[in-house]
Amino acid sequence: MSTPNDDRYLTRRELAEFLTKQGFPISYSTLLKMGMPSRNDGPPPVGYWGNCCLYDPQRALVWARKRFRTNWRSAA
Fold first, then answer.
1. Which secondary-structure segment (H or E) carries 47?
2. pTM for the whole thing?
3. Residues 14-35: pLDDT tens digits?
4. What angle (nearest 5°) sits at the alpha carbon of residue 1, between those of residues 5 and 53?
5. Alpha helices of the chain — where are they, by DSSP H?
6. What's the Cα-to-Cα distance from 59 to each of 8, 63, 71, 73, 74, rounded to whole Å?
7. How many CA atoms lie within 13 A of 70 on its CB side?
8. Domain ranges of the chain
């Protein structure tokens, strides 16, 4: 598995594993849903290999930290 100091890009499946190991539990299917064009809420891809999105681990960590909240608002 990649470490943040690598210059290696990650696929979505690898990115889900990487983010989970860094303390941001997220599944592959959730990343797929967030990256859909209709949502456009996923981590920013750095490029494509064929039709496969590739991600920079450092940029993905920045994205995950921005989504992190310290409090939870209840619906009631």
1. strand 47-49
2. 0.78
3. 999 999 999 999 999 999 999 8
4. 85
5. 12-21, 28-34, 57-67
6. 12, 6, 24, 27, 30
7. 0
8. 12-67
